[in-house]
Amino acid sequence: MKPIFLIIPIFAIALSCQTQQEEIQIQTKMPENKNKKATGVGGIFFKCKDPEKMRDWYGKNLGLVTNEYGSLFEFRNTDNPEQKGYLQWSPFSETTKYFEPSEKEFMINYRVENIETLVEELKQSGVTVLDEIESYEYGKFVHIMDPEGNKIELWEAVDSVFTEMYEGKTTH
User: Among the CATH numbers 3.10.180.10, 2.60.120.200, 3.90.79.10, 3.40.50.1860, which is that of 38-166?
Assistant: First the structure.
């Protein structure tokens, strides 16, 4: 005969895990518009006193592969694992004007799809769009402000350019 005192705690733990899982699913808010907008983080930028010293410190202590811009992190696209993607980590001088009009010490870059359509949707929603879309060989960029005054950079990436330029020179 199996001892009942072992079965009851195991059942209670299983029930607790299921309840926690249901709570997590309930708390998740799915956007009303099912079109992909932000697909991931594209960059993390922050102000510091000495960007070169910071790059060296992160390289030495955390193993980041650095260049004059910071460190380029390489990852794989979950929808297409053969495709590489990139995230730029960059320390900026504390005197940079690049984050303006935000007064914050950081800026986040989000990878997006269909940037032209997204910018129109953002304007219709009353989001402050700070500039026009700019195109470079490695992607299209535009900047917006969130409700708390954080400047956000949106980037529709052309990852193949980074693959050609930085193959074997990324942090991963």
Answer: 3.10.180.10
